[in-house]
Write a structure and sequence with these properties.
single chain, 210 residues, alpha+beta, Penicillin amidase (Acylase) alpha subunit, N-terminal domain, three-stranded antiparallel sheet, 6 helices, globular
């Protein structure tokens, strides 16, 4: 256990970041502390001189690495810890407790959301206006349509998700249905053959003619 000096005094820091799984999944604990540390330290995805080993295009997986520990980084970490402690938020809270999408069709029910900001080095981008007064992250921007295609002996095997779902009307059952599936990482197998399309069709069939 170490004492980190911040503008608010000495704070006892338990190794939350050491136990963080280095992911931004819903059950990842400590990701929010890293996020605010990174923001307060003023780093970005273009930062290079803050690392002892700078980015090397011949070794993109392992570089950059070994963050330089300075008065600025110590201050940023201490301030990030103090920020959440002052709001009564556990440093080892899961990301899904703090980061979510609101379902207006169900009284603003929270849909826990994984992902993070590109500046954190996250490929799965999910962002909003930033941390709010309560210390939460309300997501309103990120991936839209995602699709994967493979092939088997019968032809294409396609899975997809529309992260925003299909209906802006909050009274419709499709308002946040795929958002919830996206939260659960539950892909939808898309129909390909005529019989599959017919079985899964919703609503009336409209035929277009020239």
């Amino acid at each position: 256990m170490a004492l980190i000096k911040t503008s608010r005094g000495a704070i006892r820091y338990r190794s939350i970041l050491n136990n963080w799984d280095r992911h931004n999944n819903i059950d990842s604990r400590g990701a929010h502390v890293f996020r605010e540390f990174w923001n307060k330290a003023g780093f970005s995805e273009y930062t290079n001189d803050s690392f002892k080993v700078p980015f090397n295009e011949a070794d993109p997986i392992n570089t950059p690495r070994e963050l330089k520990i300075t008065a600025q980084t110590r201050q940023a970490l201490g301030d990030a810890i103090a920020y959440f402690q002052n709001k009564g938020i556990a440093l080892d809270a899961s990301l899904g407790e703090l980061q979510y999408v609101l379902d207006a069709g169900k009284n603003n029910q929270h849909i826990a959301m994984h992902g993070g900001y590109g500046s954190e080095g996250i490929f799965n981008v999910a962002q909003g206006a930033g941390v709010n007064e309560a210390g939460n992250y309300i997501i309103n921007n990120g991936p839209t349509y995602m699709q994967s295609v493979t092939f088997d002996s019968k032809g294409p095997v396609v899975e997809a998700l529309l992260a925003y779902s299909q209906a802006g009307d909050t009274t419709r059952p499709y308002h946040r249905d795929q958002t919830r599936r996206y939260s659960d990482k539950e892909w939808i197998r898309l129909p390909f053959s005529k019989s599959e399309i017919s079985e899964q069709a919703v609503g009336e069939v409209i035929k277009l003619r020239e």
